[in-house]
Every structure is written in structure tokens, then in C-alpha cells.
């Protein structure tokens, strides 16, 4: 009887420990889910059950996360930490989440990202959401350094939208060999630089809508062409339809099967071209070339005319000097003689002032 009682107590204690739930959180063993939503938490709560596969800690006041935050949570596959005001991710922050497949860090204020923050989950992770999560330029560079340092060979979805990105550092995605979807919408990208999209041969979708792209340079078009399998979204950018837009317009006409919103791409500037389809701008190529040739010819003509005028003025000046050579020579001699007299007088006076005896003689003579 005593043996049965002890076994019962042990099982009860074990069950209570296994089914424990952190304060201010909701736990469901059946769904293997724990939710700590908008509970004003200041740190990741302890005592999260080991059965947890889906962990939602959102809408709190957590400023930093580190390697101690997720210890003992080997079964977690989906982790949402959105809208927590997280500003710092430390070394090996997710080291205890060896099975993590989806990580949502959106709507935070990341300013410090350790280069090794994602290292322990780099092989298991499939989706990473950093939308509206990067607070400043230093966090962008920290993230780029982290992504360049570790190999996220199995990552398939990366969301970097709404981060005010101005440009993409080279080789940022070069170690994401399996990435299929890259979200860069609603940033401030002004250009796509060389090697900014290197390593994304498996990419199937690239979203560049709602940025500050006025056109695409040759290197930007080459970067887009380096993504042979990707469908592209380029809408709602302030395209400037001046003569520099023709290479992009020609490329767009050739790549309509890849650009899903090609027919909706419109000129924003100048006002005379506003709402004109960029697909039709290619017809301006000949006019721009003619205008450029005419401008170059006019500029060359003006330079030649200016050279002739300056040469003529120089000849006149030399002729005037030649005709007045005797007068000029006399003036030069007169100036030389005048300077010599002044110098001799100054030299004589200096000798008198420097010799006390001569000074006395000169004084007596004056008396």
C-alpha cells in the first residue's frame, strides 16, 4: 500500500511539473502551444512547459534576449517574439532552440545584433521575419555581418520589409542557397548595387514594391538577371522617365514574363510623363539619342568658338606690345633708374645711422 501511494504521489508531482504554465501565460498541452500575449512581461518567462512546440510571446516590454532566455525548449519549432521592443540580441541567443523552423521578430527595435545571434539555428530555420524590426543603420550592418558570417543554407523565406533600408550591402544573402522568397517592400532603396543579390540562384519571388527606385542602372539590371527563376514585383516606385530610363524600359519589355506587375509600372516624373506606362517609354530612345548628339555638337561648337575668340584676343595683345616696344622699354629703364636712386639714398642713410661718428659729424655740420 505504501508503495502504491508513493508511486501515485510521484506521478502527480511529475504531471504537475510537466503541465506547469508560467504566470500570465496561457498553455495548451493538446495544441502544444504557449501564449504570453500583451502581459507587460519584462523578460522571457521561466517555467515554459517542455512539450511546447508553438511559443507566442508578443506585445510585451522585453528589451533584450540572450542564451538563457530559451533553455530547455528543445521542442519549439515556431517562435513569435513580435512587438516586444527588443533592442538587443546577444551571443547564441537561440542556442536552446535546435528544432526552430519559424522565427518572427517583427515590430521590434533592434539596435544590437551579435554576429553569432542566429548561429545555432542557422541549419534548422526555414522562415525569418524581420519586418519593421531594424531600428537604425548600425542594426542593418550588424544583421548583414551576421548573415554573411553564418550559412543559412535551409532558409526559404526572409522578410525585411518596412525597415527604411537605403541600400543592400554586398553579399548579404550570399550564403542563403535555398532562399525562395525575399521581401524588401516598403523600404527606401534607391538602387540595387552590384553583388547585392549574389547567391540567390534559387529565389522564386523578390518584392521591391514601395521603395525609392527611380530607375535601374546596368549593374542593377544585371543583378535582376542573375535571378533566373525569380518573379519580380517592382510597383509603386517613383520612376523618373527621362533619357536615363530607356535601358530599364527596354529590359522591362524583354522581361514581362518575369515582372508580375510590368503593365502597372508607371512614370512618376516629370509631370508631362506622369502615369505613362514604362513599357511604352522605349519609343523615346531615338529622340534621346538625337537630343544627346545635338547637345554634344552644340557644346563642341561653343568650345571651338571660345578658343578662337581667346586666340584672337591674345594676338591683339601681342601686337600692341610689339608696336609699343620702345615706349615700354623706356618706361622700364626709367623705373629702374628711379628705383636705383631710391635704393642708393636708403643705403647711404643706413650707413650714417649705423656709424655714431658719422652721425656726430653730420650733426655738427648741421649746426
From TrEMBL:
<dbReference type="InterPro" id="IPR000483">
    <property type="entry name" value="Cys-rich_flank_reg_C"/>
</dbReference>
<dbReference type="Pfam" id="PF00560">
    <property type="entry name" value="LRR_1"/>
</dbReference>
<keyword id="KW-1133">Transmembrane helix</keyword>
<dbReference type="GO" id="GO:0005886">
    <property type="term" value="C:plasma membrane"/>
</dbReference>
<keyword id="KW-0732">Signal</keyword>
<dbReference type="Pfam" id="PF13855">
    <property type="entry name" value="LRR_8"/>
</dbReference>
<dbReference type="InterPro" id="IPR001611">
    <property type="entry name" value="Leu-rich_rpt"/>
</dbReference>
<dbReference type="InterPro" id="IPR000372">
    <property type="entry name" value="LRRNT"/>
</dbReference>
<dbReference type="GO" id="GO:0090090">
    <property type="term" value="P:negative regulation of canonical Wnt signaling pathway"/>
</dbReference>
<feature type="signal peptide">
    <location>
        <begin position="1"/>
        <end position="19"/>
    </location>
</feature>
<dbReference type="InterPro" id="IPR003591">
    <property type="entry name" value="Leu-rich_rpt_typical-subtyp"/>
</dbReference>
<keyword id="KW-0433">Leucine-rich repeat</keyword>
<feature type="domain" description="LRRNT">
    <location>
        <begin position="20"/>
        <end position="54"/>
    </location>
</feature>
<dbReference type="InterPro" id="IPR032675">
    <property type="entry name" value="LRR_dom_sf"/>
</dbReference>
<protein>
    <recommendedName>
        <fullName>Trophoblast glycoprotein a</fullName>
    </recommendedName>
</protein>
<keyword id="KW-0677">Repeat</keyword>
<feature type="transmembrane region" description="Helical">
    <location>
        <begin position="303"/>
        <end position="323"/>
    </location>
</feature>
<keyword id="KW-0812">Transmembrane</keyword>
<feature type="domain" description="LRRCT">
    <location>
        <begin position="237"/>
        <end position="289"/>
    </location>
</feature>
<keyword id="KW-0472">Membrane</keyword>
<dbReference type="InterPro" id="IPR052286">
    <property type="entry name" value="Wnt_signaling_inhibitor"/>
</dbReference>
